[in-house]
Write a structure and sequence with these properties.
This protein has eight helices and 16 strands. The protein is an alpha+beta fold and 493 residues long. It folds into two domains: 141 residues, Serine Threonine Protein Phosphatase 5, Tetratricopeptide repeat; 296 residues, monomeric porin ompg (Porin, Beta Barrel), CATH 2.40.160. It has a 14-stranded antiparallel beta barrel with strand order 1-4-5-6-7-8-9-10-11-12-13-14-15-16. A hairpin with a 4-residue loop joins strand 12 and strand 13.
Amino acid sequence: MRASTLTFLILAVLLLMSARADAQGLFTPTANSAVLPLEDFPAPATTAPAPAQAAAPVRAVAPAPSYPTTDPARAVVLDQGKAEAASLLEKGEATRAYELYMRLVRSAPDDDEVNLGLARAATRAKRWNQAVMAYETLLEKYPREAGLYGELAHVYMLLGDREAAERSLAMVRALDGKSTKAATDQALDVLESRYGDFQVHGKIRAGFQYDSNANLGPASDIMDLGVWRQVRVNGAEAKESVGAYFGVDLDLGKRFYRDSPWWLVGDVRGFWRGYANSELSKMKSREAQWGRAALGFRHIGDSILAEVRLKGEIFDYEFSQNVCAYGPEATFLWAAAPSFHLIFKGGLEQRVYYPDQMRDGLFGTAGLYGRVFFGAGNHEFLLGGRYLGANAEKKAYGYDGWEGTASLLFKLPHGFELASFVTYGQEFYKGPATVLEAEKRQDDRVRTGLGLTYRIDESWSVECGYNYTRNTSNSGLYTYDQHYVNTGLVWSF
């Protein structure tokens, strides 16, 4: 959504200061990726606000402090207290900042900087009635400060009082002479959706794709397998194709009660891909479907987010061979600072394969990641790694491994976003890949990609991306390269 009005810019800044969700795309930095094996699908997006995203520093919109004193020592103490309170608020420690501002306002009730800091700290600490009182105190002195009315409207929306918020924004329109009622109503609609006790968000995407290796096969049907040279494996050779894709993502959240830190959350996702190359039908890989449903609980604190879900997934080739998975998954996020998050994500799942039931077993992952927000555009950098493990019914299909990830997301002007990522990992299997080989299988995998998104408006965007995968294995059957390109249209709601 684009708006040139002062009001909308104010509310947009406040939205960044307030808690919001973003776990989406945690391990896959762009949605422009191919359909991957089950364990490589993107993690589910969050639906409710996440704590302490990159918060803007507290800046007074009213004039400089007006506290008069002839006692230099008292003035120094006051200045130190204001600096400490502002620092706490910038670090995301809203409750401590609020408590300190309450002490300061008793000592300096007419200090503009203290009252503004109290208003903002009270807002983030969910002391909304106190925030209203602090803003009204400032407006008594500065009745023509449009910015104060805009921030007060935000607090009224947190209180669920849209009528009061509309009255505040009517004052903004009267004072700045630029804002329109349509723009301010649209801003309130955004806040109402964000702070509602029941939230539904989703995406529908469709587009075209090119895959240089749709079946993830080696470069040739002829390969070396252990001591056996020039073995022919019919149909294994990589096959390229163009095709189409279609995906649906739906995220839901229901707060237990007003102002509760607990949410009931769930997600439903589906993805389909199809290729034009008819040769892929011989190996049951011309068409594939993936689906997922999950339900769980989320707790949101001042600087933490904790979540547990129970999921079920299915990945199917042409409705004839598939793998089903079910089990728990957990996420823990700690906002150590407004611009730095520490994230743990792990899961355990039981997989059932058809028809190759010897692959059935227990699979698990556990990862730790650091995310940094930087720059005026609130760009993102993610770095971390995870453990991968599996115990299959047939020992040779089990493995232990690891994967490291680095990604960058740049939010560019004019509605563009540029994402890039690179991952490197190893898998050490507990047996050979085929009966012709004696050495235990080992895979080294590198993946990298680049994605560009153009946001047409609040709902519509265009996506395009390129991914490259190189899997090197001591078994010729599992050594392959893949180039994948896609472009499509996305509708978000």
